[in-house]
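A further point concerns the way the authors explain their paired sequence and structure data. For illustration, here is how one protein appears when written out as sequence plus C-alpha coordinates:
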Amino acid sequence: MNLKQFFVFIIIYALSFSLCGQEKFYLSNNLKKSSISFQLLNNLIVIPVEVNGIELLFLLDTGVDRTILFNLATKNSVRLQGMEKIRLQGLGEGSAIEALKSKNNTLRIDQVIGKRQMIYVLRDAQFQLSAKMGIDINGIIGGDLIEDFIVKVNYSTKKITFYDPAFYKYKNCKGCSTFPLEFYKRKPLINVKVENHLDEKFDVKLLIDSGGSDALWLFESSHPKIEVPENYFTDLLGQGLGGNIYGKRSKINKLKIGNFDFENVSVSYPDSTSIVSVQKNKERNGTLGSEILKRFHIIYDYGNSTITLKKNANYKDIFTYNKSGIELVYGGDMLVSEKRPVFTSSNTNNQSENSITQMIYTYSLAYKPSFQISFIRENSTAKKAGLRVGDIMLEINGKTAYNYSLEEIIFLLSGKENKRIRLKVDRDGRHLDYAFLLKDLL
Protein backbone atom coordinates (compact mmCIF):
# COMPACT_ATOMS: atom_id res chain seq x y z
CA MET A 1 0.00 0.00 0.00
CA ASN A 2 1.53 3.32 -1.10
CA LEU A 3 2.00 5.96 1.58
CA LYS A 4 -0.22 8.17 -0.51
CA GLN A 5 -2.67 5.35 -0.99
CA PHE A 6 -3.34 4.92 2.71
CA PHE A 7 -6.38 7.08 2.79
CA VAL A 8 -8.69 5.44 0.31
CA PHE A 9 -11.29 5.54 3.07
CA ILE A 10 -12.37 9.00 1.97
CA ILE A 11 -14.02 7.74 -1.20
CA ILE A 12 -17.75 8.40 -0.72
CA TYR A 13 -20.66 7.88 -3.02
CA ALA A 14 -23.76 9.74 -1.86
CA LEU A 15 -27.22 8.96 -3.15
CA SER A 16 -28.70 11.40 -5.63
CA PHE A 17 -31.31 13.75 -4.22
CA SER A 18 -33.27 16.57 -5.76
CA LEU A 19 -31.43 19.90 -5.86
CA CYS A 20 -34.50 22.03 -6.52
CA GLY A 21 -33.86 25.55 -5.25
CA GLN A 22 -30.10 25.18 -4.89
CA GLU A 23 -28.18 28.04 -6.49
CA LYS A 24 -24.98 27.79 -8.46
CA PHE A 25 -21.60 28.82 -7.07
CA TYR A 26 -20.32 32.15 -8.40
CA LEU A 27 -17.37 34.55 -8.07
CA SER A 28 -18.04 37.60 -5.91
CA ASN A 29 -17.39 41.20 -6.98
CA ASN A 30 -17.65 40.27 -10.67
CA LEU A 31 -14.24 38.60 -10.54
CA LYS A 32 -13.15 36.42 -13.46
CA LYS A 33 -11.08 34.06 -11.31
CA SER A 34 -10.11 33.25 -7.74
CA SER A 35 -7.04 31.28 -6.57
CA ILE A 36 -6.55 29.56 -3.22
CA SER A 37 -3.80 27.52 -1.62
CA PHE A 38 -4.48 23.99 -0.46
CA GLN A 39 -2.86 21.44 1.81
CA LEU A 40 -1.77 18.23 0.16
CA LEU A 41 -2.05 15.34 2.60
CA ASN A 42 -1.26 11.90 1.20
CA ASN A 43 -2.05 13.30 -2.27
CA LEU A 44 -5.47 14.52 -1.08
CA ILE A 45 -6.53 18.15 -1.48
CA VAL A 46 -7.68 19.92 1.70
CA ILE A 47 -9.20 23.40 1.35
CA PRO A 48 -10.73 25.94 3.76
CA VAL A 49 -14.50 26.31 3.36
CA GLU A 50 -16.74 28.67 5.32
CA VAL A 51 -20.08 27.11 6.22
CA ASN A 52 -22.57 29.75 7.32
CA GLY A 53 -19.67 31.99 8.35
CA ILE A 54 -17.61 29.34 10.20
CA GLU A 55 -14.32 28.24 8.59
CA LEU A 56 -13.84 24.48 8.33
CA LEU A 57 -11.56 22.15 6.37
CA PHE A 58 -12.92 20.09 3.47
CA LEU A 59 -11.58 17.46 1.09
CA LEU A 60 -11.98 18.41 -2.56
CA ASP A 61 -13.29 15.19 -4.07
CA THR A 62 -14.37 14.72 -7.68
CA GLY A 63 -15.80 11.34 -6.66
CA VAL A 64 -18.73 12.89 -4.80
CA ASP A 65 -21.59 14.87 -6.22
CA ARG A 66 -22.85 16.35 -2.93
CA THR A 67 -21.43 18.35 -0.05
CA ILE A 68 -21.05 16.20 3.08
CA LEU A 69 -20.38 17.52 6.58
CA PHE A 70 -19.12 15.64 9.65
CA ASN A 71 -16.77 15.93 12.65
CA LEU A 72 -18.42 19.00 14.17
CA ALA A 73 -17.54 18.20 17.79
CA THR A 74 -15.07 21.09 17.95
CA LYS A 75 -17.01 23.33 15.58
CA ASN A 76 -20.46 23.18 17.14
CA SER A 77 -21.11 26.87 16.49
CA VAL A 78 -22.04 26.03 12.87
CA ARG A 79 -25.74 26.62 12.42
CA LEU A 80 -27.42 24.51 9.79
CA GLN A 81 -30.73 25.22 8.15
CA GLY A 82 -33.85 23.10 7.47
CA MET A 83 -32.75 19.69 8.80
CA GLU A 84 -34.50 16.45 7.85
CA LYS A 85 -33.56 12.76 8.19
CA ILE A 86 -32.42 10.75 5.16
CA ARG A 87 -30.40 7.58 4.45
CA LEU A 88 -27.12 7.41 2.55
CA GLN A 89 -25.51 4.40 0.90
CA GLY A 90 -21.80 4.29 0.17
CA LEU A 91 -18.81 2.04 -0.27
CA GLY A 92 -18.11 -0.59 2.39
CA GLU A 93 -19.46 -3.81 3.76
CA GLY A 94 -22.26 -2.23 5.82
CA SER A 95 -25.76 -1.06 5.01
CA ALA A 96 -27.12 2.43 4.38
CA ILE A 97 -26.70 4.89 7.25
CA GLU A 98 -28.94 7.56 8.68
CA ALA A 99 -27.91 11.17 8.08
CA LEU A 100 -29.42 14.65 7.99
CA LYS A 101 -30.13 16.85 5.00
CA SER A 102 -29.80 20.59 5.52
CA LYS A 103 -31.05 23.19 3.04
CA ASN A 104 -30.34 26.90 2.43
CA ASN A 105 -26.73 27.05 3.63
CA THR A 106 -24.09 29.51 2.46
CA LEU A 107 -20.65 28.20 1.48
CA ARG A 108 -17.65 30.42 0.79
CA ILE A 109 -14.17 29.56 -0.50
CA ASP A 110 -12.26 32.83 -0.66
CA GLN A 111 -14.14 34.72 -3.43
CA VAL A 112 -16.22 31.69 -4.47
CA ILE A 113 -19.72 31.76 -2.98
CA GLY A 114 -22.60 29.31 -3.04
CA LYS A 115 -25.95 30.28 -1.54
CA ARG A 116 -28.94 28.08 -0.71
CA GLN A 117 -26.67 25.03 -0.73
CA MET A 118 -27.71 21.52 0.29
CA ILE A 119 -25.49 19.76 2.84
CA TYR A 120 -25.65 16.17 4.04
CA VAL A 121 -24.62 15.80 7.68
CA LEU A 122 -23.16 12.66 9.25
CA ARG A 123 -22.86 12.02 12.96
CA ASP A 124 -19.26 11.98 14.24
CA ALA A 125 -19.39 8.31 15.15
CA GLN A 126 -20.30 7.32 11.61
CA PHE A 127 -17.29 8.58 9.73
CA GLN A 128 -14.00 9.44 11.42
CA LEU A 129 -11.98 10.98 8.59
CA SER A 130 -9.93 13.17 10.94
CA ALA A 131 -8.52 10.12 12.73
CA LYS A 132 -7.22 8.82 9.40
CA MET A 133 -5.80 12.15 8.20
CA GLY A 134 -4.17 13.35 11.42
CA ILE A 135 -5.87 16.77 11.27
CA ASP A 136 -9.47 17.94 11.75
CA ILE A 137 -11.33 17.41 8.48
CA ASN A 138 -14.95 18.57 8.64
CA GLY A 139 -16.39 17.64 5.28
CA ILE A 140 -16.11 16.72 1.62
CA ILE A 141 -17.08 18.87 -1.36
CA GLY A 142 -16.99 17.91 -5.03
CA GLY A 143 -19.38 18.08 -7.95
CA ASP A 144 -21.53 20.86 -6.49
CA LEU A 145 -18.52 23.17 -6.65
CA ILE A 146 -16.48 22.01 -9.63
CA GLU A 147 -19.32 21.89 -12.17
CA ASP A 148 -19.92 25.65 -11.95
CA PHE A 149 -16.37 26.70 -12.94
CA ILE A 150 -13.37 25.80 -15.01
CA VAL A 151 -11.00 24.57 -12.32
CA LYS A 152 -7.20 24.40 -12.55
CA VAL A 153 -5.36 22.23 -10.02
CA ASN A 154 -1.61 22.65 -9.68
CA TYR A 155 -0.27 19.90 -7.41
CA SER A 156 3.27 21.37 -7.60
CA THR A 157 2.42 24.84 -6.25
CA LYS A 158 -0.57 23.57 -4.23
CA LYS A 159 -2.89 26.10 -5.85
CA ILE A 160 -6.44 25.80 -7.17
CA THR A 161 -7.90 28.45 -9.46
CA PHE A 162 -11.63 28.80 -10.14
CA TYR A 163 -12.43 30.54 -13.44
CA ASP A 164 -15.71 31.99 -14.62
CA PRO A 165 -16.40 29.90 -17.75
CA ALA A 166 -17.85 32.94 -19.55
CA PHE A 167 -14.44 34.65 -19.58
CA TYR A 168 -12.04 31.73 -19.76
CA LYS A 169 -9.99 31.21 -22.92
CA TYR A 170 -7.80 28.18 -23.52
CA LYS A 171 -4.21 28.99 -24.47
CA ASN A 172 -1.80 27.01 -26.58
CA CYS A 173 -0.18 24.61 -24.18
CA LYS A 174 2.85 22.53 -25.10
CA GLY A 175 2.58 19.10 -23.55
CA CYS A 176 -1.12 19.41 -22.73
CA SER A 177 -3.66 16.80 -23.80
CA THR A 178 -7.43 17.20 -23.55
CA PHE A 179 -9.75 14.22 -23.07
CA PRO A 180 -13.53 13.88 -23.23
CA LEU A 181 -15.45 13.17 -20.04
CA GLU A 182 -18.64 11.25 -19.53
CA PHE A 183 -20.84 11.72 -16.48
CA TYR A 184 -22.81 9.33 -14.35
CA LYS A 185 -24.91 11.04 -11.67
CA ARG A 186 -22.76 14.15 -12.06
CA LYS A 187 -19.50 12.26 -11.52
CA PRO A 188 -16.76 12.36 -14.21
CA LEU A 189 -15.57 9.25 -16.03
CA ILE A 190 -12.70 8.86 -18.48
CA ASN A 191 -11.75 6.14 -20.96
CA VAL A 192 -8.20 4.80 -20.62
CA LYS A 193 -6.23 1.73 -21.67
CA VAL A 194 -4.65 -0.85 -19.38
CA GLU A 195 -2.36 -3.79 -19.95
CA ASN A 196 -2.84 -6.63 -17.50
CA HIS A 197 -0.32 -9.18 -16.22
CA LEU A 198 -1.07 -11.41 -19.24
CA ASP A 199 0.05 -8.60 -21.63
CA GLU A 200 -3.56 -8.13 -22.77
CA LYS A 201 -4.44 -4.53 -23.69
CA PHE A 202 -8.02 -3.28 -23.35
CA ASP A 203 -10.11 -0.17 -22.72
CA VAL A 204 -11.71 0.63 -19.37
CA LYS A 205 -14.00 3.41 -18.15
CA LEU A 206 -12.88 4.87 -14.81
CA LEU A 207 -14.32 7.34 -12.33
CA ILE A 208 -11.94 10.28 -11.83
CA ASP A 209 -11.67 10.44 -8.05
CA SER A 210 -9.42 13.08 -6.49
CA GLY A 211 -10.64 11.88 -3.09
CA GLY A 212 -9.30 8.36 -3.55
CA SER A 213 -5.62 7.87 -2.69
CA ASP A 214 -4.97 4.67 -4.62
CA ALA A 215 -3.65 4.91 -8.16
CA LEU A 216 -6.14 2.51 -9.69
CA TRP A 217 -9.09 0.34 -8.73
CA LEU A 218 -10.45 -2.29 -11.11
CA PHE A 219 -13.75 -4.15 -10.64
CA GLU A 220 -13.31 -7.83 -11.43
CA SER A 221 -16.84 -8.54 -12.63
CA SER A 222 -17.04 -5.50 -14.91
CA HIS A 223 -14.80 -6.75 -17.74
CA PRO A 224 -13.76 -10.27 -18.87
CA LYS A 225 -10.07 -9.27 -19.04
CA ILE A 226 -9.93 -7.81 -15.52
CA GLU A 227 -8.34 -10.65 -13.58
CA VAL A 228 -6.43 -10.62 -10.30
CA PRO A 229 -2.81 -11.74 -10.89
CA GLU A 230 -1.46 -14.67 -8.92
CA ASN A 231 0.94 -12.28 -7.20
CA TYR A 232 -1.33 -10.31 -4.82
CA PHE A 233 -2.07 -9.82 -1.15
CA THR A 234 -5.34 -9.20 0.69
CA ASP A 235 -5.58 -5.88 2.50
CA LEU A 236 -7.82 -3.24 4.03
CA LEU A 237 -8.26 -0.77 1.17
CA GLY A 238 -10.00 1.88 3.21
CA GLN A 239 -13.30 2.96 4.69
CA GLY A 240 -16.44 4.26 3.02
CA LEU A 241 -19.84 5.32 4.22
CA GLY A 242 -20.83 1.68 4.45
CA GLY A 243 -17.83 0.58 6.53
CA ASN A 244 -14.48 -1.06 5.82
CA ILE A 245 -13.45 -1.84 2.24
CA TYR A 246 -11.35 -4.96 1.74
CA GLY A 247 -9.74 -6.27 -1.41
CA LYS A 248 -6.61 -7.47 -3.16
CA ARG A 249 -3.54 -5.40 -4.00
CA SER A 250 -1.26 -6.12 -6.92
CA LYS A 251 0.28 -4.43 -9.97
CA ILE A 252 -0.54 -4.24 -13.66
CA ASN A 253 1.90 -3.85 -16.54
CA LYS A 254 0.71 -0.52 -17.90
CA LEU A 255 -1.84 2.28 -17.66
CA LYS A 256 -2.19 4.54 -20.70
CA ILE A 257 -4.07 7.87 -20.79
CA GLY A 258 -3.71 9.13 -24.33
CA ASN A 259 0.07 9.55 -24.80
CA PHE A 260 0.75 9.39 -21.06
CA ASP A 261 2.15 5.99 -20.05
CA PHE A 262 2.70 4.47 -16.61
CA GLU A 263 4.37 1.12 -16.01
CA ASN A 264 4.22 -1.31 -13.10
CA VAL A 265 1.20 0.50 -11.67
CA SER A 266 -0.24 -0.32 -8.25
CA VAL A 267 -3.80 -1.64 -8.55
CA SER A 268 -6.49 -2.68 -6.09
CA TYR A 269 -9.39 -5.06 -6.68
CA PRO A 270 -12.10 -4.28 -4.08
CA ASP A 271 -14.32 -7.12 -2.88
CA SER A 272 -17.68 -7.18 -4.64
CA THR A 273 -19.52 -6.87 -1.31
CA SER A 274 -17.84 -3.50 -0.73
CA ILE A 275 -18.83 -1.92 -4.06
CA VAL A 276 -22.48 -2.90 -4.43
CA SER A 277 -23.57 0.75 -4.53
CA VAL A 278 -21.26 1.65 -7.45
CA GLN A 279 -21.95 -1.40 -9.59
CA LYS A 280 -25.28 0.10 -10.66
CA ASN A 281 -23.29 1.81 -13.40
CA LYS A 282 -22.67 -1.22 -15.60
CA GLU A 283 -20.25 0.62 -17.89
CA ARG A 284 -17.82 1.65 -15.17
CA ASN A 285 -14.77 -0.59 -14.66
CA GLY A 286 -13.06 1.11 -11.72
CA THR A 287 -11.50 4.28 -10.36
CA LEU A 288 -8.59 6.54 -11.30
CA GLY A 289 -7.29 7.98 -8.03
CA SER A 290 -5.05 10.76 -6.83
CA GLU A 291 -1.85 8.68 -6.93
CA ILE A 292 -2.21 9.16 -10.70
CA LEU A 293 -3.87 12.59 -10.70
CA LYS A 294 -1.13 14.20 -8.60
CA ARG A 295 1.31 13.57 -11.47
CA PHE A 296 -0.42 16.21 -13.64
CA HIS A 297 -1.42 19.81 -13.83
CA ILE A 298 -5.19 19.45 -14.39
CA ILE A 299 -7.98 21.56 -15.89
CA TYR A 300 -11.48 20.32 -15.07
CA ASP A 301 -14.06 21.70 -17.51
CA TYR A 302 -17.35 20.00 -16.68
CA GLY A 303 -19.31 22.47 -18.81
CA ASN A 304 -17.54 21.27 -21.95
CA SER A 305 -17.17 17.70 -20.64
CA THR A 306 -13.37 17.73 -20.85
CA ILE A 307 -10.28 17.32 -18.71
CA THR A 308 -6.84 18.65 -19.71
CA LEU A 309 -3.64 17.05 -18.39
CA LYS A 310 0.01 18.12 -18.42
CA LYS A 311 2.92 16.30 -16.77
CA ASN A 312 4.37 17.79 -13.61
CA ALA A 313 7.43 17.01 -11.47
CA ASN A 314 5.67 14.03 -9.84
CA TYR A 315 5.12 12.25 -13.14
CA LYS A 316 7.95 9.72 -12.80
CA ASP A 317 7.46 8.93 -9.10
CA ILE A 318 7.56 5.19 -8.50
CA PHE A 319 4.51 3.36 -7.18
CA THR A 320 5.11 2.13 -3.64
CA TYR A 321 2.95 0.81 -0.82
CA ASN A 322 2.98 0.26 2.95
CA LYS A 323 5.22 -2.80 3.41
CA SER A 324 4.68 -3.11 7.16
CA GLY A 325 0.98 -4.06 7.07
CA ILE A 326 0.24 -1.50 9.80
CA GLU A 327 -2.64 0.94 9.43
CA LEU A 328 -2.55 3.97 11.75
CA VAL A 329 -5.06 6.52 13.00
CA TYR A 330 -4.78 9.61 15.14
CA GLY A 331 -5.26 8.34 18.69
CA GLY A 332 -5.99 11.67 20.38
CA ASP A 333 -3.68 14.02 22.25
CA MET A 334 -1.54 12.75 25.10
CA LEU A 335 0.14 14.75 27.87
CA VAL A 336 3.92 14.45 27.69
CA SER A 337 6.87 15.97 29.55
CA GLU A 338 9.26 17.82 27.25
CA LYS A 339 12.91 18.52 28.12
CA ARG A 340 14.11 21.88 26.86
CA PRO A 341 17.61 23.46 27.06
CA VAL A 342 17.98 26.95 28.55
CA PHE A 343 21.24 28.92 28.27
CA THR A 344 22.25 31.23 31.12
CA SER A 345 25.24 33.54 31.58
CA SER A 346 26.98 34.65 34.80
CA ASN A 347 29.93 36.98 35.42
CA THR A 348 32.99 36.21 37.58
CA ASN A 349 34.98 38.91 39.47
CA ASN A 350 32.48 41.44 38.20
CA GLN A 351 34.27 41.34 34.83
CA SER A 352 31.97 40.95 31.83
CA GLU A 353 34.80 39.37 29.81
CA ASN A 354 34.88 36.51 32.29
CA SER A 355 31.25 35.52 31.84
CA ILE A 356 30.34 31.83 31.93
CA THR A 357 27.58 30.35 29.79
CA GLN A 358 25.73 27.40 31.23
CA MET A 359 23.11 25.13 29.77
CA ILE A 360 20.42 23.82 32.06
CA TYR A 361 17.26 21.88 31.28
CA THR A 362 13.69 22.71 32.12
CA TYR A 363 10.68 20.42 31.83
CA SER A 364 7.21 21.38 30.69
CA LEU A 365 3.99 19.50 30.07
CA ALA A 366 2.37 19.68 26.65
CA TYR A 367 -0.31 17.89 24.68
CA LYS A 368 1.04 16.03 21.64
CA PRO A 369 -0.68 13.88 18.98
CA SER A 370 -0.58 10.12 19.38
CA PHE A 371 -0.88 7.48 16.68
CA GLN A 372 -2.63 4.18 17.24
CA ILE A 373 -2.56 0.94 15.27
CA SER A 374 -6.07 0.40 13.88
CA PHE A 375 -5.39 -2.61 11.64
CA ILE A 376 -2.58 -5.12 11.04
CA ARG A 377 -2.48 -7.20 7.90
CA GLU A 378 -2.45 -10.94 8.49
CA ASN A 379 0.94 -12.60 7.98
CA SER A 380 2.69 -9.21 7.84
CA THR A 381 6.10 -8.77 9.46
CA ALA A 382 4.59 -6.38 12.00
CA LYS A 383 1.97 -8.97 12.98
CA LYS A 384 4.60 -11.68 13.31
CA ALA A 385 6.73 -9.39 15.47
CA GLY A 386 3.91 -9.21 18.02
CA LEU A 387 2.34 -5.80 17.42
CA ARG A 388 -1.40 -5.54 18.05
CA VAL A 389 -4.37 -3.39 17.15
CA GLY A 390 -4.70 -0.69 19.82
CA ASP A 391 -0.96 -0.27 20.41
CA ILE A 392 0.03 3.42 20.64
CA MET A 393 3.31 4.39 19.02
CA LEU A 394 5.78 6.10 21.36
CA GLU A 395 9.02 5.90 19.34
CA ILE A 396 9.95 5.05 15.76
CA ASN A 397 13.58 4.15 15.12
CA GLY A 398 14.56 5.91 18.33
CA LYS A 399 12.70 9.15 17.56
CA THR A 400 9.65 10.28 19.51
CA ALA A 401 6.55 9.40 17.46
CA TYR A 402 4.78 12.73 17.97
CA ASN A 403 7.65 14.49 16.18
CA TYR A 404 6.45 12.81 12.98
CA SER A 405 3.35 13.60 11.00
CA LEU A 406 1.10 10.68 10.11
CA GLU A 407 2.21 11.04 6.49
CA GLU A 408 5.88 10.86 7.49
CA ILE A 409 5.29 7.66 9.45
CA ILE A 410 3.59 6.02 6.48
CA PHE A 411 6.51 7.11 4.29
CA LEU A 412 8.89 5.26 6.62
CA LEU A 413 6.68 2.16 6.50
CA SER A 414 6.79 2.27 2.68
CA GLY A 415 10.57 2.13 2.48
CA LYS A 416 12.85 -0.36 0.78
CA GLU A 417 12.63 -4.08 1.39
CA ASN A 418 14.51 -5.32 4.46
CA LYS A 419 14.64 -1.86 6.02
CA ARG A 420 14.59 -2.40 9.79
CA ILE A 421 11.82 -0.65 11.73
CA ARG A 422 12.08 -0.34 15.53
CA LEU A 423 8.96 0.63 17.47
CA LYS A 424 8.30 1.40 21.11
CA VAL A 425 4.58 1.18 21.88
CA ASP A 426 2.26 1.72 24.81
CA ARG A 427 -0.02 -1.24 25.45
CA ASP A 428 -2.33 -0.77 28.43
CA GLY A 429 0.29 1.31 30.23
CA ARG A 430 3.22 -1.00 29.47
CA HIS A 431 6.05 0.20 27.22
CA LEU A 432 7.11 -2.55 24.81
CA ASP A 433 9.82 -2.71 22.13
CA TYR A 434 9.43 -4.43 18.77
CA ALA A 435 11.44 -4.66 15.57
CA PHE A 436 10.70 -6.05 12.10
CA LEU A 437 11.86 -5.80 8.50
CA LEU A 438 9.83 -4.33 5.66
CA LYS A 439 8.90 -6.97 3.07
CA ASP A 440 7.97 -6.41 -0.55
CA LEU A 441 5.00 -8.64 -1.39
CA LEU A 442 4.84 -7.64 -5.06
Observations:
- The two ends are 10 Å apart (CA to CA).
